[in-house]
Amino acid sequence: MKDIKILAIESSCDETAAAVIENGRKVLSNVIYSQIDLHTLYGGVVPEIASRKHIEKVNPVIEQALTDAGLGLKDLDAIAVTYGPGLVGPLLVGVSAAKAVAYASGLPLIGVHHIEGHVSANFLEHPDLEPPFLCLIVSGGHTHLVIMKDYGEYEILGRTHDDAAGEAYDKVARAIGLGYPGGPKIDKVAKEGNPKAIAFPRAKVDECPYDFSFSGLKSAVLNYLNQAEMKGEEINRNDVAASFQAAVVDVLVERTMHAAKEYGFKKVALAGGVASNSALRAGMKEACEKRGLEMIYPSPIYCTDNAAMIGAAAYYEFLKGNFSGLDLNAIPNLKLGERK
């Protein structure tokens, strides 16, 4: 069988990315233009600004990905793009660019679910990994515990009822004066703090043993800060960050280990932007080693939004012949497992 090369495009939030992936596992190029410095000025992603910057950068990023791979459009087999979930403006830029390239080149178009891309990032550095396996997906907009039953086939065991873990990180970081992006900044200062300094809650959801809730934890942190301020007490933000992070990690690890035991999985994967968090990796690794489980996770560059993971997911859609028409549209609230 000939090697399948796919040009993939990702623009669901504030990274403009393109990559060329061979056979769903080999990265021939991976180009990312990040807008973090731009949005840091505003304390978070501004959709209109993100969309305008995507328009400016999408073509140069695609051209660079092809150059880095040493390929032209004639050498490709398909064009892939994230079409949801995400911010509708940024998604539309990527989808429009992908449709234009597919039309001009006569290549098939593959719409890819952003979260399926995050899960598929694990294939890029673990070539022997095959489904089924258990995967914890933790990002700014999503917290899911899923079984990847087969390529493109998922069973959702648990999800968050309110804030995603990454969203809670951003809100707490803002409250203690760390700014945006919250995840890396809390992870950094937490290393200087005491994770047992403050007893923040670990929420459980009645009758949903694998579900998550982080809104109460976020509120507990805000209440602690407000009470300390009213009493004139000094706030050690390192301790606050460390204690908050410990509460998040404890819940994520506990739910995942419970599912691994109940469903008999020996492989546990991490995916999503928060999968690069050092405390989560350490906590999950310790728990897996204690139970004799294999822990799998991508390098940080493949945890944050990137196009290589989209190309990895697209390969298996290509093999199934699941192509999209040129009427493909952005779907900002696309659910995991949905096909539009």
Description:
The protein is an alpha/beta fold and 340 residues long. It has two domains: 5-120 and 303-320, ATPase, nucleotide binding domain (Nucleotidyltransferase, domain 5); 130-297, Nucleotidyltransferase, domain 5. It is 45% helix and 19% strand. The chain has helices spanning 36-40, 47-69, 88-105, 114-125, 165-175, 182-190, 215-231, 237-263, 278-291, 300-303, 308-320; strands at 5-10, 15-22, 26-34, 78-84, 109-113, 133-138, 143-150, 153-159, 267-271, 294-296. A five-stranded mixed sheet has the order 3-2-1-4-5, sandwiched between helices. It has a five-stranded mixed sheet with strand order 8-7-6-9-10, with helices on both faces. Strand 4 (78-84), helix 3 (88-105) and strand 5 form a beta-alpha-beta unit. Helix 4 crosses helix 11 (308-320) and helix 5 (165-175) packs across helix 6 (182-190). The model has no long low-confidence stretch (mean pLDDT 94).
Mean pLDDT: 94
What count of domains describes the coordinates? Answer: 2
The spatial strand order of the largest sheet comes to: 3-2-1-4-5
Strand content: 15-25%
**Count of DSSP-assigned helices:** 11
Q: CATH superfamily of the largest domain, please?
A: ATPase, nucleotide binding domain
Order of helices and strands: EEEHHEHEHEEEHHHHEHEHH
CATH class of the largest domain: Alpha Beta
Oligomer: single chain
Cα-atom radius of gyration: 20 Å
Structural class: alpha/beta
* Helix content bin: 40-55%
